[in-house]
C-alpha cells in the first residue's frame, strides 16, 4: 500500500476545490469574492484542525503580526510552506509575505487565463485565519500574480 503524504494531498485537493468554487461563484452570481473567501477561510480552519491532529499547534500571540509570524513558522515546520517558496519581510508594523511557489498557482493561473482575476487568495485566507482574533487590528492586501503573490499585512 502506498504511503499518502497528507500535506501534499491537502494542497492538491484545496487547489482544485478553490478553482471549482470560484468558477461556480462566477457562473452563479457573476461575482468571485464572497463564496471564494468564505470557502478559503473554512479550508484554513480545517487545515488548522488537521495540523493539530499531527501534533502541530499554533501558540497564542499578543498581536496580529506575531500570530501571523508564529503561524508561518509552524506552516514551514509542517511542510505547508517551504522556506524556499516563501519570503517573510517585517518592517515595524507591516509584514509582507511573498509566496514564490504556491500550491494554488495552478488554480489561480487557470482562473486568470479564463479572464477571472478578482478572487480571494486562499493563501491570504489561510494566513488571515491565523490572526483572526486580531482582525480589527490589521489590514490586508493581496497582489495576485500567477506563481508569485504578495500578501501585505499592516497592524493598525
Task: Please tell me about this protein's structure.
With 156 residues, the protein is an alpha+beta fold. The protein has one domain: Muramoyl-pentapeptide Carboxypeptidase, domain 2 (2-Layer Sandwich), CATH 3.30.1380.20. Helices cover 49% and strands 16% of the residues. The chain has a 4-stranded antiparallel β-sheet, with helices on one face. Helix 1 runs antiparallel to helix 2, helix 1 packs parallel to helix 4 and helix 2 packs across helix 5. The protein starts with 5 loop residues before the first helix and ends with a strand.
Alpha-carbon Rg, integer: 15 Å
Look at the structure and give the CATH class: Alpha Beta
CATH superfamily name?
Answer: Trafficking protein particle complex subunit 3
Low-confidence stretches: none
Overall number of structural domains? 1
Q: What is the ordering of alpha helices and beta strands?
A: HHHEEHHEE
Largest sheet descriptor: 4 strands, antiparallel
Amino acid at each position: 500500500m502506498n504511503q499518502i503524504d497528507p500535506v501534499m494531498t491537502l494542497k492538491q485537493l484545496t487547489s482544485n476545490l478553490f478553482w471549482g468554487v470560484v468558477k461556480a461563484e462566477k457562473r452563479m452570481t457573476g461575482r468571485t469574492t464572497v463564496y471564494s473567501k468564505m470557502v478559503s477561510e473554512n479550508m484554513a480552519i480545517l487545515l488548522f484542525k488537521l495540523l493539530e491532529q499531527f501534533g502541530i499547534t499554533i501558540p497564542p500571540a499578543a498581536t496580529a503580526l506575531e500570530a501571523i509570524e508564529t503561524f508561518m513558522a509552524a506552516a514551514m515546520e509542517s511542510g505547508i510552506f517551504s522556506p524556499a517558496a516563501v519570503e517573510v519581510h517585517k518592517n515595524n508594523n507591516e509584514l509582507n509575505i511573498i509566496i514564490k511557489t504556491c500550491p494554488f498557482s495552478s488554480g489561480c493561473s487557470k482562473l486568470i487565463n479564463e479572464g477571472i482575476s478578482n478572487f480571494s487568495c486562499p493563501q491570504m485566507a489561510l494566513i488571515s485565519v491565523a490572526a483572526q482574533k486580531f482582525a480589527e487590528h490589521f489590514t490586508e492586501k493581496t497582489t495576485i500574480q500567477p506563481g508569485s503573490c504578495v500578501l501585505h499585512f499592516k497592524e493598525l
